[in-house]
Predict the structure.
Amino acid sequence: MAVERAEGPLREAHKWISDLEFERADPVRRLLRACIGNPIANYFPHSVQRLVLGLMRSELAAATWTDPGGWESMVISYADRHRRLADKLLCTFGTMPAALRNRRRLAARVIARLIDAAPAEPVEILCLGAGPGHIVNDAMRQAHRQAHATLVDLSAAAFDYGRRLAEESGHDACVRFIQGDVRDVADMLDRPPHIVKMLGICEYLEDECLEAIAQTVAGVMPQGSWIVLNSISKAHGTNRFFRRVLGLRMIHRSPDRLEALLRPAGFADFVALPEPMGVYHVLLGRKGIAAAK
């Protein structure tokens, strides 16, 4: 892994997560997925699979068909219990839901430690493509210092749910939701962010769009502030199922590729932290030199 050149607090990033309990797949389960589960999901007629998921009233499938990659499917993947048998099977035995839950644990811990390492208090967090804000709420619970979070999303559909999450965690006074385009973020901020979170959106953005957002975000970030995002690999083994059955099209990039896209905007000192399913890396970087014009 080439992305490993951090300085300062980021040097400690691997230690921050050393005690986390992640979901893992034992060798037998991996073999069963590779030899039986994934081939069936990928190559069994997609029309039949869609019909079965519909007849079984899968809430995960319905949410993904309505809004591919949206917040409701994420919430269902996070849940401990499911009302529908289809969702219980998908979320219990599927690689991707387990990887999503791992990413949540990993990213929340990392952001909590960045909050504790920030140079000022309250710590300002900017969340792009935020949805309801599960991860930032988790991070604020874990952190020992006060933080304020601005959550920006093109859609306001998740905001009521997000406000309930913030209220339940006791952070409702520290979280605000803004519906808008991330490219207009400079007009949304009262104070520059110490941390920018871009988890769960890069896999849906073309290179040119991601580069433009990086330039925009870099323009509002002070020197030394942190950015947190994720890469995604095809290790989940069901890309064909996602495309044909769920209508979910993701752009798979390595951590090195994401680094290359962000560096022209002035980001450096990257660290890539993998989750054990091998699907996601949470990538941390710092705002270094002035953003390229």
